[in-house]
Structure formats: C-alpha cells, structure tokens
Amino acid sequence: MLSDDDISVILHYLSTITEQTFRSVDDLLTLSTEGFLDLTEKIHDDALPVIISMFKSTLLGRELFHKLTGDLDESTGKRAKAFLKRYMDLILSQEDTDKNYNPLLVYLPSESFDDLAFIQSRQSFFLRQTVDTINEFLRTACACPVTFAPGKQEDAWKWFWNYLLKK
Amino acid sequence: MVLELSIEKMIPVLGNGTRTGESTESGTLTETQRTSKVVLFDDEDHTYDYVVEMLTRCCEMSKDAAFYCALEVDMTGRTIVYYGDFDSCKTVCNKILTYGPDHRMPHSMSSMNAEVQQH
C-alpha cells in the first residue's frame, strides 16, 4: 500500500507533467477517458505501475477500470487498448522470450535445496513444466543421470525429492 | 452486473479466449449452456505473471484476455474468467484451485481463490 506521502509525490509529478493541479486521486477521476489517456501518454514507463497501484491503494481501482473499459468510442477504445497493451508489456516479465530460459533453474535455485517446505510448495510448479525443462534442470542442478520420458513428470519429482532427502 | 457487461464488451477486442463462450469451435454457446460462471478473487499472494499464465492454461484464454482479467481482478477485487454449464465451470474452477502457488513469490503457498456461481 502506498503512503499518503507517496501519493502526494505522485500527484505532484502528475500535476507537473500536465500543468494541471491534482490535489487528490479523485481529481484524476474527474478527467474524461480521453483526458486520462492523454495523461498516461505523458507518464514515464517507470512511473506508470506505481501510478496505477495508487488507484488500487486508494480504493479507486474500480473507477479507473471502468474509465478504461466503459462506453468508449472507436478512437478512445483504440487508445485504451493501446494503453492496456503498454501496461501489460511493462507489468509482465519477459521470462518466456529467452529460448534458453529454464524457469526451474530460476525459481528453484540450488541455495534453496535445504528448505524442504519451500521446495514442496513448488511441487505443482515443477510438475507443470515440460519434461525437457525438468530434465535440463535435474541434469544441471542435481547432476541427475536419468532422462525422464514425456509424461513422467511425477517420476522426475520423486527422483528430485529423494535427491533432496539424501543430501 | 456492470462488470459483466464490461467484460462482454472487451473480450472480442482483446482476445479469443473461450471464457465467455462467445465463439468456440462448436459454435456459439446458447443461453441454456451458459448457466454458470467462474469468478476469480483478488489476493496479495500472486503476481500478474501468475494470473496470466494460469488463465491461459486453465481457461484457454489469449494472453491479452488473461491480462485484462488480471487487471480487473487487481483493480476491482474480482473478475469472471469463464462462462458455461455447471459441470464445465466446475472443471475450470478446480483447475484454478489446484494450479498451485506462485513460484515467483516466496510467501505464496496456495492457488488463487475462485468459485462457480450460477445465474
């Protein structure tokens, strides 16, 4: 949750870039959708997620959401869609863009292998991966000599768990 | 009610997810087939990445549609992620409830909360 001081700083930033005066988050909601989209286009990428979270923090997220998805004409609808796309690109990690990316190596680091409760909480995550991803993980992180066949994620998990218990 | 209307409006724009049943391989769902819906609830234990990944897999949504739902659940506290008959909604809901914790957040220990609601 953002503090009142944080919100003051954000409102000051928005007032500066628009040469308007925003004393509260409610003032932002008095903008039309078009006015709000004009505003968002002036906001730096790094600041945008914080500003969106400010609406949630002040329990005005519903109003903002309706402003962006309510009755929009064609032009405003396109701009709102572009805004959502921009926000999506900012918010979501790019974890699936690297062909060599192995999520198990990232989210199950070997430093965590002594924390069995943590590892067990990631069991379903482990089982959701492809067997190729699992094989690479086990080979790299555990020097596993076994290559598991497609559909054998459960067997791979058992092997991994036994490996941890024997460590 | 207002939220449901907004979702209906945006889905054709944002993606081809099947959650509203607007267009499926077998054709348009009739009103009698859309007797139920799956509602997803917000919490502080899951990331946007998790919600998008989970909805694309459990509800077969496009990434854009899943992000739209993630934004709605974050901003408003709830979002409807699937429409259908009771049994299909139950299946989707169970997938969500058993999807597992968000590996990106160390303190995340469980799936998101969702429930089937009948019209």
Structural features, described:
The complex is a heterodimer of chains A (167) and B (119). By secondary structure, chain A is an all-alpha fold. Chain A folds into 2 domains: 88 residues, no CATH class; 64 residues, no CATH class. Chain B is of the alpha+beta class. In chain B, 42% of the residues lie in helices and 15% in strands. Chain B is built from 4 helices and 3 strands, in the order H-E-H-H-E-H-E. In chain B, strands 2-1-3 form a 3-stranded antiparallel beta sheet, with helices on both faces. In chain B, helix 2 crosses helix 3. The longest helix of chain B has 14 residues. Classes of the chains: A mainly alpha (167), B alpha+beta (119). At the A-B interface, helix 5, helix 6 and helix 9 of A face helix 1, helix 2 and helix 3 of B.
Describe what is shown at a glance:
Chain A contains eleven helices and no strands.
List the helices and strands and how they pair.
The complex is a heterodimer of chains A (167) and B (119).
Chain A: H1 4-18, H2 25-29, H3 33-42, H4 48-57, H5 61-69, H6 74-91, H7 103-107, H8 116-121, H9 123-128, H10 131-142, H11 153-166
Helix pairs in contact in A: 3-6, 10-11
Chain B: H1 2-14, E1 36-41, H2 48-58, H3 63-76, E2 78-84, H4 86-97, E3 114-118
Antiparallel strand pairs in B: 1-2, 1-3
Helix pairs in contact in B: 2-3
